[in-house]
Design brief:
This protein is mostly helical and 265 residues long. Helix content is 60%, strand content 11%. The chain contains six helices and five strands, in the order ααβαββαββαα. Helix 3 packs parallel to helix 4 and helix 4 (166-183) packs antiparallel against helix 6 (242-250). The longest helix has 84 residues, at 2-85. It is elongated. Mean pLDDT is 79; it is low at 233-239.
Amino acid sequence: MSHLLVYGQKCAHLRFLAAFKLRAQADKQVADAAAALGEQQTHEAQQEAQTRHDDANQMADSRLNHVIKGRCGTAVSSLHTFVEMLPQYLSVPLPERVQRLLVAPVEQLGSVIQWCDRRQMLIRQAQGTYVSVRTSIDVRAVLEAAVGDDGRVLVHEANRFVSVDQDALAMVVEEALANAKRHGEAGTVVVEATCAQRVLTVTIRNHNREGVPSLSPAEIELMLRPGERPSTVSTMNDGLGLHSIAEAVRRVQGTLNLTAERVGA
C-alpha cells in the first residue's frame, strides 16, 4: 500500500508540473499575442498618421503649385504687355541682344509653369495614378524647340510625326539637354530621333568639356540609383536626377540608357 501511495503521489506531482508548464506556455502565448497585437496597432496608427501627414502635404503642395503657376502666368502676361508697349516710348529700336534679355524672363517663367505641371505628373506616377496619354506630334519641331541654337537635330522625314506622351518626352529631353549643356563642350550636342515598330528612340550625344571625366560603367550604374551619385561628379544629379527621369520613362513603358565612350579609345 505504501508503494502504491508513493507512486500515486509521484503521478499527481508530475500531472501538476505538466499542468503548470502548460499554463505557463499558455500565459506566454497570450502575452506574446497581446504584445504582437499592440505592436500591430501601434504600426497601423503610425501608418495612418503618416498617411494623413502625406495627404496634408500633398494638398498643400497642390495649392502651392496653383499659386506659383498663377503668379507666373500673371507675370508672363505683364511682361508681354510691357514688351508690346515699350517701342512707342523709345526713340530708337532696342538692340537684338536687349530684346532677347526682355524675352528671357518670359521663357523662364513659362518653364516654371511647365515644371509645376510635370511635378504633378511625377507625383501621380509615384502614386500609380498617372494615365499616359499619347498624342500625335511633330517630333522634329519639339526637339528643335528644346535644343535651340545649342546643337543639331536629326530626324528623318519618315520619322517626323509620331504618337507619344509629349509631357514625358519633353521632360526627359530637357533634363538630358540640361546635363549635356552643363558638362558638355558647346556646340557638340546632337539629338537624333528614329521610329521603328512603333517605338520612338531619342538619342542625345555630346562631347564632355575639357577636364570633365567620362563616367565608368560602375559610375553610370550608381547614377541610376535613387539618391546616389559618383563622388567624382558632384553636380551630375542637378535637376530631377537621372534616377527620377529613368523611373518616369519606365512608367510610360519606356527605358533610359546612359553610356560613356572615350573618343579615340
